[in-house]
Amino acid sequence: MSAHGIEFRQVTKRYGGADAPLVVKGIDFTVPKGTLTTILGPSGCGKTTTLRMIAGLDSPSEGQILIEGREVTSMSPSERNVSMVFQSYALFPHMSVLENVGYGLSVSGLTKAEAAERARATLATVGLVGMDARLPSELSGGQQQRVALARALVIEPAVLLFDEPLSNLDARLRRSMREEIRSLQQRLGLTVAYVTHDQSEALAVSDQIIVMHAGQIAQAGSPQDLYERPASAFVAAFMGEAMLFDGVSEPDGTVCFGPVRLQPRHRMPPGRVKVAIRPEAWAVGPLQPGGLGGTLLKQAYLGSFQELTIDTGLGPIFVVSPHVDRSWQLGEPLGLTLNPHGVTVVTA
Known about the structure:
About 25% of the residues lie in helices and about 35% in strands. By secondary structure, the chain is α+β, with helices and mostly antiparallel strands. Strands 6-7-8-3-9-10 form a 6-stranded mixed β-sheet, sandwiched between helices. Strands 13-12-11-14-20 form a 5-stranded antiparallel β-sheet. A 5-stranded antiparallel β-sheet has the order 15-19-16-17-18, with no helix packed on it. Helix 2 packs across helix 3, helix 2 (about 95-105) packs parallel to helix 4 (about 140-155) and helix 3 (about 110-125) packs across helix 4 (about 140-155). The protein is globular.
């Protein structure tokens, strides 16, 4: 039995003839068995196409796909032992919760009683005891999401796929559902591939994150790797809403951009660099030597932090400040200095 739940070997996808543009460009990756990998990236980067190829809903133009060591490249979805949870939930509106969850079992040859028993046990797993007879229209968004999850789990798939599963939920429910999905994945030892465009969601649930850009893998690694050690300017900017500045690495290792000088955590060779700075890396106060001066353009109070936009010689800079008790005045002169956390320097 393979240690890899999912394996892609030089997988390419184009829609149309040989002259059609590539949507996915010869990618390699593995999802180790029993782990959760998030495929992350902006719209149009190829992440949903990649998920659909795992499911068998799309066929690769070239390359191989393996699930648990078995090549499935040319197999139909029903032959792959894979379940998918869609963004829209795709529940049957005229069927009860129990019928929705047991549907995949009833078409696989189990008796009605056996299917119902397994469906009830799976509903208990996702916290929906006593909901058997309800219709989807009688459920909240979070409950519908759980039914969709139970329907995917009940067939005991080798691989579970999620396509933007939480995008229809409000912020609080999104947070609790992502925690539940992660807890369920770890408790049952599921192999999961999870597509999202939400960086915080990816950081919260993943063993591995694969960032895609223009049909290629920009970087793959642990959440901490991608956030703290991005391999390119694109990954640095994408993970955590970092702003990019043109800078220079000097022979002594100091990096300068505008009036700001800093010592990066990883020494860079001399030459042009990109400095990626996340909003929380800036400290706001009086102007200091080696700092960046500006005036306050916008301010928003969000309870546990404040969002500030400060007009500087390097352009408007977006800052997240924890100092909620400080009252800011628009037009007020301010100074910006950098905390070491949240600053990444990469080659230009």
